[in-house]
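Work through this protein:
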Amino acid sequence: MNNYSFIQQQLHHICLGNNFLKKSFFEIEKLIFYQKIQNIENQKHVFISGLPRSGTTVILQFVYNSKEYASLTYNDMPFIMAPSLFSKFYKRKLVPKKERMHSDGLFYDLSTPEAFDEVFFSSFNTNEEIQENLIDYISLVLIKYKKNKYLSKNNTNYKRISLIQNILPNSIFIIPFRNPLQHSFSLLNQHKNFINLQNKDKFILKYMNYLGHNEFGNNHQSWFKPIKYNNFDDINYWLEQWLLFYQNIINNFQSFKNCNLICYEKLCYNNDYFNKIKSILKLNENLDFKFRNSQQNITLSVDNNLLLDCNKLYDTMKTK
């Protein structure tokens, strides 16, 4: 996004910055490309959600590598609401893989899946509108990529688990979590990283707003109203948000059918656990993938009582 030309930036403004145009593109796409896909409501679509920096992107890449799912990719940008229509005449040049702006060792090219379907969800004002249109939208993505199952990574969908399950009752929800202190430190670092990037390039902030990415940077929005910590530059703010986020998941969605809490550290070190995840998703047992976990030396001042509460919840979730 920081290398987009002026014309590319203007194209993003046009395609992503106006709800009327987004909905219009969607309606045109349906008129031209929509076909009735049998049994989409009963398929085991996969929705990956959770706090950023919890492993959602890596898990997305792992599931996508199975080649069993259709997902939005960078190739669909910025025509998220009409991916087939514009692909007919908007040909993009192949680009070599490059590292994400997170500087976290994850690389992408035009064929890489990413969290873009928030563009669809944010185009509608009510759950009723989403319920009326979600199956059509997913069908269009499946038609383009000639698949029967949809794969989504959207960190905001934790708020829509009930809604999505009502629409697609057999869908599988994957909600990863990490060691709270390491996770919170990573969130804090990315927040500072994106403030720096957005201050250098104003388009990055607009781009993230268009995609509904307000996890970090100048447009950061808290997942839950802070109780004690309001300073985004304090690791305790991120720890408190970690606790509030996963308490919400445990309290409201733990009993939901096909809602799976996934410990990222165990994915990295425990082969039996890794195989269990493949079994949940009905993936080929020979499918391999390398999950990596980095541990940082953290010397920041931490609220020990808050950290204790986080660690207790983390230990509880690991046993699920």
Summary: The first helix runs from residue 6 to 16. Strands lie at 46-48, 69-70, 98-99, 107-108, 149-153, 172-177, 259-263.
